[in-house]
Every structure is written in structure tokens, then in C-alpha cells.
Amino acid sequence: MISQAELEKLLAHTDALFNHVYHFECHDVPFPGKTRRGAAIAYSDLGERRPDFVRELRNSIVDWVYSRSRFNSMLDEELKERGYSTANAVSHIVQLANSKFRSGFPRGQFGELLLFNFMQHFFKAPALLRKMPLTTNPAVERHGADAIHLGLADVKPVIYLGEAKTYTSKYQFANALEAALSSIVKAHADLLNELDLYVYDEFIEEPLRAIAKDIKRNKLDFQVQLVSVISYTETVKIGGSDSAATLAALEKTVKKHIGTIKEELFESHSEHLLARMHFFFLPFWNLESLLEDFEP
User: Fold this and answer.
1) Following CA atoms 111, 116, 119, 121 in sequence, which dihedral angle do they give, to the nearest 10 degrees?
2) Whole-model pTM?
3) Per-residue confidence (pLDDT) for residue 105, from 0 to 100
């Protein structure tokens, strides 16, 4: 089995993105789950680092599509084909990676990239499996969990089953949470029956391929934890005399939303499953516009 140190060597670089992300724990708010956090675009003084956030999220597309070893192999090939022009070769690979994304449907890709970066940054868990497309129609979204990442807890493998949901409608925090909760619970219920639909492709690092095979063939004992990244349109106006005051207001707003959720929402779900859930709540102002800026 792989060690923690070896696993962390396989992580994609997330620091450039998280330089423009403000995140905070919400454990002081009564709410089920193993962990719960809020996250938002960072500020500098009175300004939101929105363009930087979008740029760095888009920059992670290549890491999402290709493993480091696959990228290096492609780069070597393209350098030979392109007169050893690094700029030309890298530009070609970036265009190939962008072509993997469905044009005109930025919401799904936006969420998947957030999930990809958040699972690695917070859980030190590189990508292991993704659900294969069930159709050749690029306009049709896949169903089921968006990704499976691998982590370790006391040397035991932990499968992080992750979903990202992005809601652009206003005043829908509670509805967004309810839908996301039901979806991730269903993804967990379907996981073992649908493992054959999950693939390891060009995004997976070579040392993880044997582990992915063993998981699919039931040759490796593991624990499952659930990750839900919920992006939603925020309408509460915030502001402050500087970035610290603004972010404090933002944090207060997110926690207030969480505090209004009624316990009845969780009553039909297993307490053991809820105890393995990790929630991320991401408020965005003018989310529709942000998605337009993000689309590759």
C-alpha cells in the first residue's frame, strides 16, 4: 500500500488557486457532518480577487485532465514535433485539455474543478477514479459522483466520494443544500453497484493504477467519506472598511444561512453516513457572470 508521503507527491498544485480563496470552519454552528467549511473568493483591501480566482481555476484544467507523468510524456513528444518550442508545445497541450470540456456548459466544469482542487487541498487526496460518460452527446451531463479521490487515515485507505453542485438561482440556499444532500447520499448508495462505470484514465498517476484496480475488484478494504461542494448565488450585500471586515461579514452571512437549516432535513438519512460527510459552502455574487468569465 502507498504511504502518506508517496501519496502527497502525487497531488496537483493547488496553492496558486488557494492564494485567492478565503476559507473558514463552521464547526461553531450546529449542523451534522464530519466537517463543514465555508469558502469564497479572497479580497485585497476593498476589492474581490475575482479575475485571479477565475484564471487560477482555469489553469488547473490541465492537471484535471492529465496526470503529471502523462503531461510530461506529451510534452516530450510535442517538443520533438514542434522544433523544441516550449511555448508552442505547452499551448497545444492546453488546447487539448480545454477540448475535454463541454463548450456551452460551464456550470458542470466549474464545479468539477472546484471539487478536484478542494479534495486535494483539504484531504491530501489525489484523483483515483471518475465516472465515464454514458453518452457521446457532450450536452448531456453525467449522473453519479463527480470523482473519487484516495486518501489515508491511520494507514487505511479512505475513498473520498465527491460531488459538486452549482446553483445559480437566487434565495435558494436551503433548497441547494437539500438537493446536494440527497444527491451525495444517492451516489453513495449506488457506488458499489456502479464501480464498473468509474474509470482510471490519463488523469491518474501511475502508482495509483493498481490501487484503483484492487478497489474495483474488491481486493482492498477501505472506508468511504463523502464530500459535497455547494456553490450558490449569494444576495446579501456585504462590505467593510477593509478586507478583514468584509471577510468577517461574509463568514457571518454563510454561518447564518447554515444556522437556519432545520433538523428535519437530515432525519431521513443515516446518522452513520452523516458522520462521514464533509460540506463546503461557497457563496458567489453574480454567479452567472462568473461562469461566463470562467468558460474556457
Assistant:
1) -110
2) 0.91
3) 72
Cell of 131: 465516472
List the grid coordinates of 117. 482542487
213 to 67, 180, 200, 201, 217: CA distances (angstroms) = 17, 29, 9, 12, 6
pLDDT in tens, 173-190: 999 999 999 999 999 999
DSSP label at residue 51:
H
Q: What is the DSSP string of 90-118?
A: HHHHHHHHHTTS-TT-HHHHHHHHHHHHH
The H or E element spanning position 216 is helix 209-216
Under a CB-based contact definition with an 8 Å cutoff, are residues 2 and 210 in contact? no
φ and ψ at residue 36, rounded to 5 degrees: -150, 130
- Residue closest to 119 by CA, chosen among 169, 164, 179, 71: 164
The list of the chain residues with pLDDT below 50 reads 134-142
Q: What is the pLDDT of residue 189?
A: 92
